Amino acid sequence: MEPDIATAPPQPFRPPPSSVLSLDFEQLKTKLSGYLKPEDVGRVEAAYHFSADAHEGQFRISGDPYISHPVAVASIVADWHLDAQALIAALLHDVMEDTHISKAEIAERFGKTSAELVDGLSKLDKIEFRSQEEAQAENFRKMLLAMASDLRVILIKLADRLHNMRTLDSMRPAKRRRIANETLEIYAPIANRLGLNNIYRELQELSFEHKYPMRFRVLSKAIRAARGNRREVVGKVLASIEERLPQWGISAEVQGREKHLYSIYRKMLEKHLSFSQVLDIYGFRVIVHDVPACYLALGALHSMYKPVPGKFKDYLAIPRANGYQSLHTTLIGPFGTPVEVQIRTREMHHIAESGVASHWLYKEDEKTLTELQQKTHSWLQSLLELQSASGEATEFLEHVKIDLFPGEVYVFSPKGKIFNLPRGSTPVDFAYAVHTDVGNRCVACRINGDLMPLRSELRNGDQVEIITAAHANPNPAWLSYVRTGKARAQIRHFMKNAQQEESVALGERLLNQALRPHGLTLGQISNFAWERFLRDRGVRHKKDIFADIGLGKRLPVIVARRLSQAQDQESGRPNVIKPKPAGAIQIRGSEGIAVQLARCCQPIPGDPIIGTIRKGQGLEVHLHDCPVVAKLRGDRGRWVDVEWEPGEERLFDVTIRVLTKNARGVLARVASAIAEEDCNIQSVHMDSEQGAYTALNLTLQVHDRMHLAKVMRGVRRVPEVVRIGRVKADGRA
Ligand code: MN
């Protein structure tokens, strides 16, 4: 709703020029000397000269030399009594961006901490908020906080923003509106959450002025007009409060204040009020010494003026999330004018005004420091939702290094939408967060414009672009690195559907194989045995058992043993103890599918491998460069990334081909060379003699590639051996 005061003739209104603008470094130095050690002041001065040199010849849009900006920012930071490292960072905060001075150079001259702070600030500068959605603003705020792992980065950033807002006049109107909006949506709420009340208010006022210049002017004019009428009332109230409190034995400081334009404007908007209906544009603040005095003062005030029912709030007993504490009450003053009063102790006042910065402000006073620190610590903790901060309060504040959102990471889509993912998430998680179809069709990704592997870990502020292909399918290997439940569930769901049919056929085949050592085939298992088997397990169809086996949920050897027992019981065959079959090969990325090593290329651990799901045969694992694979490459979707599970203990078959000179006893010498390396020979095949040479095809059992290499080295040492090689496909070396 538009305020109904638009009829008042608009008049230009300028807030009084900020003294900060006229500050030069000498004034800053005076401020610093008030609380920093002389050697620290010297270091800050060195940073000033360095920054002035770096920005030499640069000007702000206002025409001022550029260095005036970092000095002003440092001056705001100095008002909070931040340490020398933060001051140095404030002075250098734009040099990396604007003058291409490296982080390493800053670290070398001014120390690692200041360099980290400047780097953190430069990173924040690179990301820009565009979206109008409210939920996005909250995510963006969190992203900024998460990127600034050091609280000082946020404080300097707020000072930077404050100075830019104070000097926004020289910008074009469109840019002013954009910056004002961003300030209102992002930076003012951050200041509020950190309890930096003064900055919060000033950022809001300045944003309001630049976002709605007309409304701002009209409203400020109306307030000035109203001031005249109400001054008398306010004066009366102030005088009588100041008189009454000492009578109750309370020594207090009473401050009268005009409410902020923006909060009046918000109130008009939210409650659909005209300006004349917004009565409480004045407020009072009563500052006392201790908590009992707060309640005593409240009693004194309520004895003077009637309180407005329902307006009393006790933020002493229940502080706000950002640590704010006060008693709030609204009194009905003379002529029925409502007057809001806040009552608090001096300490609470400092926290309310300066928030997180307040613990730097009172370093001298050891006792106050501890109390303030504890308070700051406790509300920071609730604010940051930290599970538990290790160490003492003092230590926590000394290091101020905090991870504000340790479990989360914030990234952008190419269109600037922000996604909030668990820490450690990958582009695949992002793809599924965008849409299931995007996840299922994703083949590659760009992070900040560069092609990156899908398993890359995303970092705060990354811009992620997913490349999809119409016929692509999810890869089971993704399951080894996705973080989100959604991605995991969708990949599994896809795999399950795709495998259902294949699993039944595969399971049937595997079970048939497993029955062989029992001297049985599937066809020989009677219906009676099957029924008994299914009934005991509460399964309805044979097919379900086959599917379970195919999906790796049941072991074929166990099903075979039970079926054979059921069959034996029926036919009265004695139960014989069967040899224990070899365990399954563990291959990563196979996710419960039956795995077979391809016969054509006989991969062994250590070989680069690739898997293919073949109808009715499960996952078949080939060498990466297997010629059979090359032939099948066309059928894309079926290829899966697999890798060897470490710690595999069984032996693998592999065939080598050895060309030797014909000589007596040569086979024996080759065989003993192999045996010496602790390796079994499974079979030997000797090609017909080719003149003076003989070709031996030996199938060996090895642990892995290293083992094979040792065996081959051993064989090569046999004098008659001319050539040796591994057979990788179709018996050809
Ligand atoms: Mn700046």
Based on secondary structure, the structural category is alpha+beta
CATH superfamily (homologous) name of the largest domain: Hypothetical protein af1432
Assembly of the depicted chains: single chain
How many strands, which pairing sense, and closed or not: the largest β-sheet?
6 strands, mixed
User: Number of helix segments?
Assistant: 27
Helix content: 40-55%
- How large a portion of the residues is in β-strands, by DSSP E? 5-15%
Kindly provide the radius of gyration, computed on alpha-carbon positions and rounded to a whole number of angstroms: 39 Å
Overall mean pLDDT stands at 78
Instruction: Return the CATH topology of the largest domain.
Output: Hypothetical protein af1432
The second-level CATH architecture of the largest domain is Orthogonal Bundle
Number of domains: 6
Inertia-based shape: elongated
Low-pLDDT segments, ≥5 res:
1-22, 359-370, 372-404, 573-585
Amino-to-carboxy terminus distance: 84 Å
Q: Which ligands appear in the coordinates?
A: manganese (II) ion
Please count the beta strands (DSSP E, at least 2 residues each): 21
**CATH domain class name of the largest domain:** Mainly Alpha
Sum up the structure in keywords.
733 residues; alpha+beta; Beta Polymerase, domain 2; Ubiquitin-like (UB roll); 6-stranded mixed sheet; disordered N terminus
Topology:
Blueprint: H1 25-33, H2 38-54, H3 68-79, H4 84-92, H5 95-99, H6 103-110, H7 112-126, H8 134-147, H9 151-166, H10 173-193, H11 197-211, H12 213-247, E1 253-258, H13 261-271, E2 282-288, H14 291-304, E3 306-307, E4 313-314, E5 327-332, E6 338-345, H15 346-354, H16 358-361, H17 366-384, H18 393-399, E7 408-412, E8 418-422, H19 427-434, H20 436-440, E9 442-447, E10 450-452, E11 464-468, H21 485-515, H22 527-537, H23 542-550, H24 556-571, E12 587-588, E13 595-597, E14 609-614, E15 618-623, H25 627-632, E16 639-640, E17 643-644, E18 652-661, H26 666-676, E19 680-686, E20 693-702, H27 705-716, E21 721-726
Parallel strand pairs: 2-6, 13-15
Antiparallel strand pairs: 1-2, 3-5, 4-5, 5-6, 7-8, 9-10, 9-11, 12-17, 14-15, 14-16, 18-20, 18-21, 19-20
Helix pairs in contact: 1-2, 1-3, 2-4, 3-4, 3-9, 4-7, 6-7, 7-9, 8-10, 9-11, 10-11, 11-12, 12-14, 17-18, 19-21, 21-23, 21-24, 22-24, 26-27
This protein binds manganese (II) ion (MN).
